[in-house]
Amino acid sequence: MKRFIKVLLITCTIALGLTGCLRGSKLQIPPAAGDSGAKKIERIVSMAPSNTEIICALGAADRLVGVTAFCNYPEEATLKQKIGDFQINREKVLELEPDLVVGISGQEGVAEELEQHGIRTIILNPADFDGTLASILEMGEVLGASDRAVQIVENMKAKRDEVRTAIVGAEPVSVLVVLDVEGLWTVGPGTFLHELIEDAGGRNIAASANAPYLQLSIETIVAENPDVIIMTLPGKEELMSKPGFDRVKAVIDGRVLEVNADVVSRPGPRLADGLYEIARVLHPDRFR
Hints:
Blueprint: H1 2-16, E1 44-46, H2 49-57, E2 64-67, E3 81-82, H3 90-95, E4 100-104, H4 108-115, E5 120-124, H5 129-142, H6 146-166, E6 173-178, E7 185-187, H7 192-199, E8 202-204, E9 213-215, H8 218-224, E10 228-231, H9 236-240, H10 249-252, E11 256-258, H11 261-265, H12 271-282
Helix pairs in contact: 5-6, 6-12
């Protein structure tokens, strides 16, 4: 259980926000202090990995002065000053003297404190894939990189269209997502992974759940008999050795696959890659 909580916090909480594990509200951007006389943004602090990826993709990595300990992509982001992990070090942020701090849902309190010190803040909380596209466009506007933002968004849309075209007429594939082998935690509606599975031509076996994250019993998994099992962490052999899993179709057919949790859970430029990766896993015959 403790291991799962750590995994969930890293893959979901930091990616989407303390309350952003559920798909949430729109981007919140306070107005700049005067349109024509607004201070140019030269020093940026990112309080979440997804924000860091967006900022770097927009060509503003050189203006990024602070990131979290979980900001592991792109490589250049790992070299930046660290401003905390699950908890943001306000003093460190102030020490970096940023022109802009970009947070996520659940960090509104930190943002308010920083604003009291005269620091402009933005809270990103995209609701879904399209919300992620909107966040990238808005950040492009804020950073003076609108052309690059449009290009990123168009590329993401093109990849999504490629997936949609490839799976036309394909039979839906039943899917179990495993976030934690020990506790058999999975995803339900209201999560990015659930949305990606559906968009990739899959059927989440936990689609009828009334919670975004839940535990499934082995009996339930055997009864649902998923065609594919997607794992967001290593542990394939451990999972397949669990009692009862030898009767699950995905195990029998050798369709237990590991994916990069960051790519399929962070609402940033790589989300389209996550969709494509899942679609290839579910419908390999359509992506030869």
